[in-house]
Design goal:
Elements: H1 5-8, H2 14-29, E1 33-37, E2 47-50, E3 57-62, H3 70-84, E4 91-96, H4 99-104, E5 116-120, H5 124-136
Parallel strand pairs: 3-4, 4-5
Antiparallel strand pairs: 1-2, 2-3
Length: 137
């Protein structure tokens, strides 16, 4: 369950957090379990969702309100090593306003449309239900 802003302290960006709140609610409504979530300036993946029946997981990063930089790509590569390559999650999904830029970058351990997906922020609410069902079964 999410804590209110007053309970958690200052929040880095509501723009960044909005897709996470929406995806959290969507995941629960589909019967998936939110295993982990980190908002604002907290360290860790924005949200990890797992299907409790088959154990499959997906890591979702919101880059809304952030510029995509070399640090962003380094973070995706690190998550690819720590989460995808080790089998902790099946895929990483990035929600961003610059999807073409993210798609064009080759990343270690991440294969586009196999274990790495990029969703435009303007349509993530339309795409995310299908993508979660596809990835989590």
């Amino acid at each position: 369950m999410f804590l209110s802003d007053e309970d958690k302290g200052p929040v880095e960006s509501t723009l960044h957090d909005y897709p996470i709140y929406e995806t959290y609610a969507l995941a629960e409504s589909l019967g998936y379990r939110v295993e982990e979530h980190h908002l604002g300036g907290e360290q860790g993946p924005d949200i990890i969702i797992r299907n409790p029946i088959n154990g499959l997981g997906v890591l979702i990063e919101s880059e809304i309100g952030h510029n995509i930089t070399s640090q962003s790509y380094a973070k995706f590569e690190r998550q690819g090593r720590e989460y995808v390559k080790t089998g902790r999650v099946k895929a990483i999904v990035v929600i961003t306003e610059t999807p073409r830029r993210v798609w064009s970058k080759r990343l270690e351990n991440l294969v586009p449309r196999e274990n790495f997906y990029v969703v435009a922020g303007s349509v993530f609410k339309d795409i995310m239900p299908t993508l979660l069902v596809k990835l989590l079964g």
